[in-house]
Specification:
By secondary structure, this protein is mainly alpha-helical. It has one domain: Aminoglycoside 3'-phosphotransferase, Chain: A, domain 2 (Alpha-Beta Complex). It contains seven helices and four strands. β2 and β3 form a beta hairpin. α1 runs parallel beside α6, α2 runs antiparallel to α4 and α5 runs antiparallel to α6. This is Phosphotransferase.
Length: 155
């Protein structure tokens, strides 16, 4: 799994795909506007929210927290739901990606957050998490990871 993520972030690197003319906007402003629409029109699974362990009293409370803690983005081309279920590896080691429903211009931490969550949930290995960030040549940013994962909770 870690090797597949490493290949994605290096070979397909979100940093190597030009976004100037990308018609797909998955920026924080766009995602937050979608979330607000879903909440206002009761288009989220409220039962799932009530059963969750999130420290918010309501979906609107979560939304308000996300608005208040929004940060400046570093836009790149993003898969939008980077996890091992969306990576296909063939017998020669070729890698393909499926489920591009959230793909587009987004903050660089979007894919990193989803991949980091997937690594942690599958392994619970701190050393693999460290290797993941070493392979990316960046320091882990828990605040941005948490933000992206909270934003994803109601989608």
């Amino acid at each position: 799994m870690l090797d597949s993520f490493s290949v994605y972030f290096s070979r397909f690197s979100v940093r190597t795909i030009e976004i100037n003319n990308c018609p797909f906007d998955s920026s924080l402003d766009t995602r937050l506007a979608e979330l607000n629409y879903f909440i206002d029109n009761t288009l989220i699974a409220y039962d799932d929210f009530v059963d969750s362990t999130l420290p918010f009293s309501s979906p609107k409370d979560l939304y308000q927290n996300l608005l208040a803690t929004q940060f400046p983005e570093s836009p790149v081309f993003s898969h939008g739901d980077m996890n091992d279920a969306n990576i296909i590896v063939d017998s020669q080691g070729g890698i393909g990606l499926i489920d591009w429903g959230r793909g587009g211009c987004a903050d660089i931490w979007c894919d990193i957050a989803h991949a980091a969550r997937n690594i942690w949930e599958e392994t619970k290995e701190k050393t693999l998490m460290q290797r993941f960030f070493e392979n990316l040549k960046i320091d882990e940013n828990e605040q941005k990871i948490k933000y992206h994962l909270l934003l994803d909770e109601l989608f």
